[in-house]
Amino acid sequence: MNSELxxxxxxxxxxxxLFCFSEQSKVVCGYPISIFFIVVNEFCERFSYYGxxxxxxxxxxxxxxxxxxxxxxxxxxxVALCYLTPILGAIVADSWLGKFKTIIYLSxxxxxxxxxxAVSAIHDITDSDRDGTPNNMTFHVVLxxxxxxxxALGTGGIKPCVAAxxxxxxxxHQEKQRRTFFSVFxxxxxxxxxxxxxxxxxxxxxxxxxxxxxxxYALAFGVPAALMVVSLVVFIVGSGMYYKAKPEGNIMLSxxxxxxxxxKNRYRHRSKAYPKRKHWMDWAxxxxxxxxxxxxKMVLKVLFLYIPLPMFWTLFDxxxxxxxxxxTTMDGNFGQLVIQPDQMQTxxxxxxxxxxxxxxxxxxxxxxxxxxxxTPLKRMTVGMFLAALAFVCAGVVQLQIDKTLxxxxxxxESQLKLLNMGNNQLEVHLPNNFTVHLPPAQIDDLTSKPxxxxxxxxxxxxxxxxxxxxxxxxxxxxxxxxxxSNYSLLKSGSQLCEYTIKFGFGSSYTIFIPSTFTFGxxxxxxxxxxxxxxxxxVHMALQIPQxxxxxxxxxxxxxxxxxxxxxxxxxxxxxxxxxxxxxxxxVGNFIVLIVAEIAKxxxxxxxxxxxxxxxxxxxxxxxIMAYFxxxxxxxxxxxxxxxxxxxxxxxxxxxxxxxxxxVTKRGSVKSNDSDNAFKLSKM
Length: 683
Fold this sequence. Notes:
One of its GO terms (molecular function) is symporter activity. It is a multi-pass membrane protein. The chain folds into 3 domains: 28-249, Up-down Bundle (Growth Hormone, Chain: A); 289-404 and 536-648, Up-down Bundle (Growth Hormone, Chain: A), CATH 1.20.1250.20; 426-486 and 499-533, no CATH class. Helix 3 packs across helix 4 and helix 7 (175-205) packs across helix 13. By secondary structure, the chain is α+β, with helices and mostly antiparallel strands. Strand 15 and strand 16 form a beta hairpin. It has helices at residues 2-18, 34-54, 56-63, 68-97, 99-120, 137-168, 175-205, 217-237, 251-268, 290-305, 310-316, 322-327, 347-369, 376-404, 544-567, 574-599, 604-627, 634-682, and strands at 21-22, 27-28, 31-32, 207-208, 214-215, 333-334, 337-338, 426-430, 434-438, 455-461, 467-470, 475-479, 483-484, 488-490, 493-496, 500-503, 508-513, 528-533.
């Protein structure tokens, strides 16, 4: 009896969830089952993309051994391509393959690109002498560039399709569920971004290899590649449950054809003999519907405001390039937590998830309550200004970093190394009456600061016999008498042999073992360390203000900009504005290349201030354009055209009805006349 009672209680508890599911309609709690596959697919794809992108610029710099400028240029070229290809993907999906097939085919291309990137980061493939450095760098460069091109084609091509395909799964009466889906969809984008920017830098920091242990970029790219394969498999598994709308033509093609005809027709009638028209798009009236022309006019009005917007993205996307490179020269020790340079990007998705609800629920209502009309265009202007402030902060931080950097000889200078192997200070006289006082075991040798937060260590043997030196991480081998070992790079932390020293980030030491050295419990007392390059002393926490400002600017600029664009465009022109918006991102990344090449500023802080100044100037221009902009209601305008069209149709019907009545009357008169004639003839 008790077991039956427990069964009834258990059944009553799960009954609501069981009856949420309908096998016939394939619905779970009011949502189509298919959208769960789409949501998982999006999470895995975003993890794959942002995880790969988080470590990309460091891969260029430290694996492919490119300088900062080349690494930054290729990084922004890749990002620009990722925002150009969505236009191609939208046209292919709407005009040819349909959304489902487009997602499948381009996801396969995407996965191949990710695998190619992972393979390109395996240093052992061409490391013939097994020293940890690839001997055929061309192979790795070519393979990585092919991989990046395929990734840009894949991620950009499916970008406009996945969200729209998810929206297609809902019926007209499921508007509430559709809105919830898009909210969860956006959460998956930020969740995938957040987790990937935390995990992949950790994977990159590991060491791996067959013959030699190096930074594991292959693993950092391999995990995103695996997630992309999972994303593709999950999407295919749900194939039988999807509603697959047939391609019905792409509105962007219609818009382009209409604009092209208007320009061509205007050029044909450029003579003064033809009367002018109110708007140059009116020259398309001979071929296209007046409602379509009016809708294009509304879109062009918004696209005109897009002209200054690329400059915001020029600054925003540098958080993945210049800001990450800046973090490599900073101290990432947060006590119990050590932050990798590429993990600082994690602050962006964290702050987005925090600031969006705060802005919508607190800041904007409070501003409205104060009586200030904070229109969308004003919000966008403030967002641009906040992004400029973020780069001012980055420039100030860079000035502090530059103060801690050692001064190395230029190409026209030489470096003289003086080593005092004795126990007493020496006085050395150089030409031009220059005197140097050398303390014991003083060495100064490096020409650049150790990268990736590593520490350069070498040992000097002051004994009369050979010395075998090894640490937990590096075996220095046999050091001959009165000679020194080569520099080896050690990570931050504690390296313990007979002598213990705690390293910071980016420092350089020479450890001198004197002739009086003897092995024993107190042997470390006779070992001398010389700090040649100080460790990074500017803390990564100083980057947090610039990340906060750039993210606050993104929330006010990007989220508001899309909201404004959608509110000012006709319902069937959303895709056109989405394409225009993505195009501003692509152009912004190309501007990074142009400005960097033209300016060629030797100091990074000067470049940061230059970009901030350019955005402030653009911000002023945009504010003037916004001041003269008149907000419209596209629905009302479309309704007016529909009403006019209905009235014209009604008038046309009235004319046809009157014509038919007139013809009928004339027909009846003719029949009466013929009847009378017939009667008269019979009489």
